């Protein structure tokens, strides 16, 4: 059935990826009547629509799905809950009074009023400009995710002879994908002395296809006037500076960048939300509400997740809290600030409340074996191995914070004392 | 004949380096694992490695020109390229339903290939939208 567009909604969700879809379901679960998802693409599902490999859903659905399968389950669920989806529509502005301005393919310019807004815009890839790779500006230089969309959704190959800079999972997965499509993948270059991807992907995406992984090396120059035809590759020193005296040249017609993701927060900065430089996303309290009351954030726009199952879990909660606020259910504010201590790169949320179970996501700065994670004197957990590439999820039972009278807690990871 | 084969366990972030001692093609010893999963992985990967394959198939009349597909189960690693090559020659017509069998017994593996998304016709409406 087609829902006519209303002027006012309990919860308006910006972005129809896994985060937005789960937020909508969470809002429905909490009793919100009118829920609107606004998505700029022609269909919901977000980045998952182009991630055709399997490896999604092991936590959430307890089975291994491909990206499109995972997305389709959520889209179907949202439709069965009669959630309104406005696709082909771009949110261009949100006012502090929660007026959402939209440019829509079908409706032109329009405004909707929200009682609560959930930001679920996802993230985008860092490009060549982010690391200022020297050289010409020819065709054939693009991000790995763009190549993924071209190959998997449009059936267009980005080139024939491919080099990849960055050994994160997206780069590794694209190396395999292009090798399967009959391209020659010359090499994957990584500036760090270790791969940033899962071992499973190094083994199954590179080793299986005899694609070399060149560690401690980077692209020092891009050659070619109309189209890339050659790269200068240089080894890097301990400061990660290229040593041009030891450089060599490699022929290729395409260079893919897989050098990290950044939360897509133009709307958030326009709204002057307090941002966290460590995550690139807004600061949020334990209900995932940002510094502007009524505006919530979840998924990759809040902090870059590596598995979508966690995105769904987090976003369900964000949607529930957004609906609670929209329906006028008040809860006590947070009274404990969460501070980063030793070996913590980032953590979300930024404050805690003792009135219910708390979920904390964090990343470490340095890989560490046999370590103890502690939150003040309230909580301790041993880990065999923690690495920056793997986000850690903790849940704290309400008793953990019960009768804690301080106003902050420090979270840290330290080596286990050897007895 | 004795040979040493090195592998990295993919079971968890520990990424244990595994070493297999092979005598006349048979595994004599496996070392380097920190838990049983590592030993099992090394054995499986040496004797009969298997992989899931996902790729796309050309599709006419749909919202997109390709429909993503996967093997319903893992297939022997050495058949991966043959499977992808057979799927390259294949074409389907929209609409396609998620889970629909696209091809039975792909490349003689006995395994079916299934669609991993629904693809409505380009003229019909994709999702319920307004
Ligand atoms: C290339 C790539 C490969 C990945 N591979 C894996 C993997 O193998 N396994 C795994 O578990 N996870 C993987 N992930 C991570 C996982 O897919 C993400 O964590 C998840 O998709 C994040 O969901 P999201 O909804 O926050 O963001 P997205 O999926 O990016 O969705 C955000 C949506 O918001 C829309 N949007 C943004 N701005 C606006 C606006 N102003 N107005 C309207 N709409 C807007 C976008 O169009 C998009 O549809 C991968 C991620 C990427 C980028
Ligand atoms: S052997 Fe066990 S501990 Fe080591 S990487 Fe494999 S699963 Fe992890």
TrEMBL record, chain A:
Keyword Oxidoreductase: yes
Domain of life: Bacteria
FAD/NAD(P)-binding domain segment(s): 9-302
Record GO terms (molecular function): oxidoreductase activity
Keyword Oxidoreductase among record annotations: yes
Keywords: Oxidoreductase
SUPFAM superfamilies documented for this protein: FAD/NAD(P)-binding domain
The name this protein goes by in its record: Thioredoxin reductase
Organism: Desulfuromusa kysingii
Automatic annotation (TrEMBL), chain B:
Residues spanning the signal sequence: none
Pfam hit, one: DUF1667
Domain of life: Bacteria
Protein name, entry field: CxxC motif-containing protein
SUPFAM superfamilies (alphabetical): CPE0013-like (SSF160148)
């Amino acid at each position: 059935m087609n829902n006519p567009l209303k002027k006012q909604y309990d919860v308006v969700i910006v972005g129809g990826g896994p985060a937005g879809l789960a937020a909508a379901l969470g809002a429905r679960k909490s009793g919100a009547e009118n829920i609107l998802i606004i998505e700029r693409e022609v269909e919901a599902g977000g980045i998952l629509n182009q991630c055709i490999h399997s490896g999604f859903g092991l936590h959430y659905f307890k089975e291994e799905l491909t990206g499109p399968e995972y997305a389709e389950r959520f889209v179907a669920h949202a439709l069965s809950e009669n959630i309104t989806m406005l696709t082909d529509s771009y949110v261009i502005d949100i006012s502090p009074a929660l007026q959402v301005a939209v440019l829509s393919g079908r409706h032109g310019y329009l405004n909707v009023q929200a009682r609560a807004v959930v930001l679920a815009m996802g993230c985008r890839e860092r490009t060549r400009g982010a690391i200022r790779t020297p050289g010409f500006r020819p065709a054939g230089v693009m991000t790995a995710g763009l190549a993924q969309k071209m190959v998997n959704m449009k059936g267009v190959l980005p080139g024939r002879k491919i080099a990849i800079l960055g050994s994160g999972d997206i780069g590794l997965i694209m190396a395999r994908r292009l090798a399967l499509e009959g391209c020659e993948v010359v090499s994957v270059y990584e500036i760090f002395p270790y791969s940033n991807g899962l071992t499973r992907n190094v083994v199954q995406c590179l080793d299986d296809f005899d694609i070399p992984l060149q560690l401690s090396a980077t692209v020092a120059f891009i050659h070619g006037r109309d189209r890339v035809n050659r790269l200068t590759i240089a080894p890097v020193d301990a400061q990660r500076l290229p040593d041009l005296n030891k450089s060599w040249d490699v022929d290729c017609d395409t260079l893919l960048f897989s050098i990290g993701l950044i939360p897509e927060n133009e709307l958030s900065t326009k709204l002057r939300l307090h941002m966290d430089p460590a995550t690139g996303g807004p600061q949020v309290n334990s209900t995932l509400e940002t510094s502007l009351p009524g505006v919530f954030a979840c998924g990759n726009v809040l902090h870059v997740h590596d598995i979508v199952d966690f995105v769904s879990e987090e976003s369900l909660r964000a949607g529930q809290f957004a609906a609670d606020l929209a329906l006028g259910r008040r809860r006590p504010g947070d009274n404990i600030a969460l501070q980063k201590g030793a070996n913590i790169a980032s953590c979300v949320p930024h404050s805690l409340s003792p009135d219910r179970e708390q979920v904390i996501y964090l990343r470490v700065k340095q890989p560490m074996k046999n370590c103890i994670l502690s939150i003040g004197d309230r909580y301790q957990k041993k880990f065999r191995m923690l690495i920056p590439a793997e986000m850690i999820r903790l849940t704290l039972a309400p008793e953990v914070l019960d009768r804690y009278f301080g106003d902050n807690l420090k979270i840290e990871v330290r080596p286990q004392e050897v007895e | 004949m004795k040979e040493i084969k090195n592998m990295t366990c993919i079971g968890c972030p520990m990424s244990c380096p595994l070493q297999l001692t092979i005598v006349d093609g048979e595994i004599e010893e496996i070392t380097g694992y920190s838990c049983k999963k590592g030993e099992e992985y090394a054995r499986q990967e040496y004797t009969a490695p298997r992989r899931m394959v996902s790729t796309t198939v050309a599709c006419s009349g749909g919202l997109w020109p390709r429909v993503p597909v996967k093997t319903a189960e893992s297939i022997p690693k050495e058949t991966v390229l043959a499977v992808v090559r057979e799927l390259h020659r294949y074409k389907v017509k929209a609409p396609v339903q998620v889970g629909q069998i696209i091809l039975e017994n792909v490349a003689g593996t006995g395994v079916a290939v299934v669609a991993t998304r629904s693809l409505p016709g380009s003229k019909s409406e994709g999702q319920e939208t307004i």
